[in-house]
Amino acid sequence: MADKPSILEQLHPNPNLEKLRNEKLKWKTKMDEAEVKVHQSDHKVTLEENRIETKEKESRAARTHRLCTRAGHIEFLIPETKELTDNQFMEFCDALFSFPGIRAHIERILFDIKLKEMD
Predict the structure, then answer these.
(1) Closest CA to 86 of 70, 103, 71, 65
(2) What is the rounded distance in angstroms from the CA atom of residue 31 to the CA atom of residue 74?
(3) Which residues contact 97 (CB under 8 A, 6 or more apart)?
(4) Secondary structure of the chain in HEC code, one letter for each residue
(5) CA geometry: angle at 62 spanning 60 and 67, to 5°?
(6) Measured between alpha carbons, how far is 103 from 53 in angstroms, rounded to an integer?
(7) Cα–Cα distance between 39 and 33 in angstroms, integer?
(8) Over the stretch 67-101, which tens digit does the pLDDT of each residue have?
(9) What values do phi and psi take at 84, rounded to 5?
(10) Cα–Cα distance between 21 and 26 in angstroms, integer?
(11) What average pLDDT does this structure show over 45-61?
(12) How many CB atoms lie under 10 A from the CB of residue 85?
């Protein structure tokens, strides 16, 4: 009720008081607009953080899928690898890929892939 002019003010309006009330209203409006912008900015930050988190999860899921697919194919080709411990399997892979013919074959495949990417 402080904003309602008193009877005295109605009879003898004070221009300074009216000016101050208008200024107060202007600043209140600006403050409200600023609060809305802060809320919108907070929301945008949250959305971007969620996008980043989603991309990281998708990347991790894609990596897990790739690793499982490739390891599954090795087990399909050589079922005996299921019986190996992790260390034994790593030694097996190290030995398998140390053969010069296999290394050259992999390098040839990678070279062909790079040539296709350049086209």
Answers:
(1) 71
(2) 65
(3) 103, 106
(4) CCCCCCHHHHHCCCHHHHHHHHHHHHHHHHHHHHHHHHHHHHHHHHHHHHHHHHHHHHHHHHHHHHHHHHHHHHHHHCHHHHHCCHHHHHHHHHHHHCCHHHHHHHHHHHHHHHHHHHC
(5) 95
(6) 37
(7) 10
(8) 999 999 999 999 999 999 999 999 999 998 888 89
(9) -80, 150
(10) 9
(11) 97
(12) 8
- Tokens 């990281």 correspond to what residue? 56
Residue identified by tokens 């009216």 is 18
Torsion over CA: 72, 78, 81, 86 (sign): negative
Tokens 């019986």 locate to: 83
Question: Is this structure's pTM higher than 0.70?
Answer: no
Query: Which are the contacts of 9, defined by CB distance < 8 A and separation ≥ 6?
Result: 17
CA–CA gap between residue 41 and residue 119 (Å, rounded) = 44
114: tokens are 């790079």
Residue for token pair 């402080």? 2
